[in-house]
User: Which sequence fits this backbone?
């Protein structure tokens, strides 16, 4: 049993997959399994609740059996809106949870120690937020978010029109945790048809 606070997770599944002709990227298959199934399988042992952030008809995700939470800021595209929706959901449904984990819905190889390492770094560095990184690149959509900061995030989105995650997180004490990229980058994301083909190859390295 890992020693870190109980942490709900939100999978950000709202991408439009324009480079793959539209539709829901997480529903694409790798080795006969949807990317979303793979993301859920990685997060389920680490998080005590998983929700999906997606707009539109939630019925398309019904087979996954997870709550589908739409953006709470109208007409705002982008991951910060999904993170805010998850913070609002957590405040209403999991008042015991001080943090949530966010993860991209198109990252099929997430680390199995993601939550534990982010929490450890946040605590050791007395940080308010924590994000993942690999090979010198930060992955700001994959991180820990404080529920206590949700109204500040709402103000940033609605009043200040801030859309870039990095711009908002720069205001806070931020821990960045780096993962190795061998045998594969755990934050590989599938944006194109070529990426799907590469993910099929990487899945073998990752155990299927």
Assistant:
């Amino acid at each position: 049993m890992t020693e870190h606070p109980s942490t709900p997770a939100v999978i950000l599944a709202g991408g439009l997959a324009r480079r793959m002709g539209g539709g829901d990227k997480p529903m694409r298959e790798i080795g006969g399994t949807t990317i979303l199934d793979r993301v859920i399988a990685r997060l389920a042992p680490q998080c005590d609740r998983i929700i999906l952030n997606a707009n539109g008809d939630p019925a398309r995700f019904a087979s996954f059996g997870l709550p589908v939470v739409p953006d709470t800021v109208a007409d705002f595209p982008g991951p910060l809106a999904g993170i805010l929706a998850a913070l609002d959901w957590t405040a209403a449904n999991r008042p015991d949870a001080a943090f949530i984990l966010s993860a991209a819905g198109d990252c099929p190889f997430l680390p199995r120690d993601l939550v534990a390492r982010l929490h450890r770094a946040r605590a050791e560095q007395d940080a308010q937020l924590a994000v993942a990184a690999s090979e010198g690149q930060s992955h700001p959509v994959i991180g820990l978010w404080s529920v206590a900061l949700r109204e500040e995030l709402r103000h940033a989105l609605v009043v200040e029109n801030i859309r870039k995650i990095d711009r908002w997180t720069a205001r806070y004490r931020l821990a960045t945790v780096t993962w190795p990229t061998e045998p594969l980058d755990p934050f590989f994301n599938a944006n194109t048809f070529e990426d799907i083909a590469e993910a099929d190859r990487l899945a073998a390295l990752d155990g299927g």
The chain is about 30% helix and 20% strand.
